[in-house]
User: Fold this.
Amino acid sequence: MKWSEWEPFYQHILEVMGYDREADKKAALLLRELLLKSKNCILLTELKERVGEQVYVFGAGPSLDEKLNRKFDGTLIASDGATSALLENNIIPHIIVTDLDGRFEDIKRANELGSTVVVHAHGDNTDKLRMYVPRLKNVLGTCQTEPLDIVYNFGGFTDGDRAAFLAEELGAKRIFLVGFDFGDVVGKWSKPNLNTHVSIWESKKKKFQIAEILLDWLRRNGRAEIIEI
Assistant:
């Protein structure tokens, strides 16, 4: 997704969620600074070389657990908290897409086992950026405002739909969405403090609605075929 295509969606997100554009810009600049200082970043061209035509994107929805007892033949991308579910099932994702809201100890363990971490900067996670980014390796930076030289914006809002946009950008021809549930229940893998599925809260409902809109756009405008399983 080009910036000109993303900008109207981003403006809608700012209005619906009450976010601050300037705070998002500062977070993107901070992430860039941390990546340069830590010398732990990789570039988009490097990541493209590691991705195949068939990509599985794992969401953190309540249906995820029941869908992990099969073989996944392709590139595996975990969205944030889904990383923990995959590790519990002895599955190591090739890529993790996260704004650092998930269980960092699991993200770090997967990273040490070979997962590339795509870290997202936004106005509300600057403390986590400072705390966690220097502890990771093979990091690709993303943001939701204007992209910088080594901090990209491929489109997408929540970790799950942003992972799908990433797969599209990386050249996937088929994107399988696993554990993507946009109903009235939030999966236990969505937040570190959850140990069971819970009823959706208002801000999460808004995020789900935006994610569905973006995934619909990707289905209609992207090159990859998107399949829910």
The mean pLDDT is 92. The beta strands are 54-58, 75-79, 95-98, 116-121, 139-143, 151-152, 174-178, 185-186, 198-199, 225-228. The two ends are 24 Å apart (CA to CA). The first helix runs from residue 3 to 17.
